[in-house]
Amino acid sequence: MRIGELLIRKQPVFSFEFFPPKSDEAVAQLERTIAELVPLSPDYVSVTYGAGGSTREKTIDLVSRIKRDAGLEAMAHLTCVGSPGDELRHVLHRLKDAGVENVLALRGDPPKGQKEFTAVEGGFRYANELVGFIRGEMGSELSVGAAAYPEKHVECGNPAVDLANLKRKVDAGAEFLITQLFFDNRKYFEFVDNARMAGITVPIIPGIMPITNAGQVERFTQMCGATLPFRLADQLNRRREDQPAVMQFGVAHATAQCIELLQSGAPGIHFYTLNRSTATMQVLTALRTIGFGR
Q1: What is the structure's pLDDT at 54?
Q2: Measured between alpha carbons, how far is 31 from 244 in angstroms, rounded to an integer?
């Protein structure tokens, strides 16, 4: 089912994000993760591109297999990086032929060793251009989503400019938005309020990453521009050398985040799983136990 239609029919929706594995060991880990998460009946799962679009073939293969073999609704990430329109057109039709009906349209990060994003000849510079291209090529055959940044995109110095860029994606045909990870729900609520005032009416799904490793989450937030609230950072630092305690605390914090978001009307939760199942399973099981979702 197309995610745009799904969000009209039911809320909240729960989804998981995976990335293509790079080694045989990572493949086995992801297969275990998917097998453990399937019984939770997510509404859909998504598969990312690697940096610089480096895993496009793996993304197409993985999202196709998840749709075919696991019987889950799947969404492929698609970026502007390194691909002219003709190549992207070919990818879109391969996804359609595989039964994949959902795409998350992103600009993407520059290839490794390249500091600034540069569009290839015949390609696209901005995500809104990619959204418009997909919509022009596929019409309503694919549901198209886009990314949103509650604390603004790391490359944008002005949150008002960032919001105007987001509006361009929606005007080009994005039917729903998935946010970058965040750890302070006030950031999401303020962002949604500002988006509505800017005329953005599509569902804005919060992206949540349960913390399982203090150093890892510190690196992620630095890369993506998200912030760790002081009290959260302090609690993580106190537990830094006790990995089980970090995970227990991270799961509790993510569960509390999700409860508040859903009680306040968020249309669902998109879990950044990092290809691991334990933390996401614990959070979603807790949410289902208290009555959120099926």
Answers
A1: 53
A2: 23
Pick 3-288's CATH classification: 3.40.50.360, 3.20.20.220, 3.60.20.30, 3.60.10.10. Answer: 3.20.20.220
Cβ neighbours of 256 (radius 10 Å): 13
Write down the domain spans for the chain: 3-288
Tokens of 230: 């002081």
Q: Which residues of 39-54 are buried (b: 16+ CB within 10 A; e: fewer)?
A: ebebbbbbbbbbebbb
Question: Is 172 exposed, middle or buried, given 0-12, 13-18 or 19+ CB atoms closer than 10 A?
Answer: buried
How high is the mean pLDDT in each 10-residue block of the chain (294 residues)?
95 94 88 92 89 69 90 92 88 93 89 69 89 95 97 92 97 98 98 98 98 94 92 96 96 98 98 95 96 82
CA pair distance 165, 135, nearest whole angstrom: 18
- Of 78, 80, 225, residue with least CA distance to 155: 225
3-state secondary structure of 5: helix
The catalytic residues are: 17
Q: How far apart are CA 280 and CA 168, in angstroms?
A: 32
- The residue assigned the tokens 């002219």 is 84
pLDDT of 110: 67
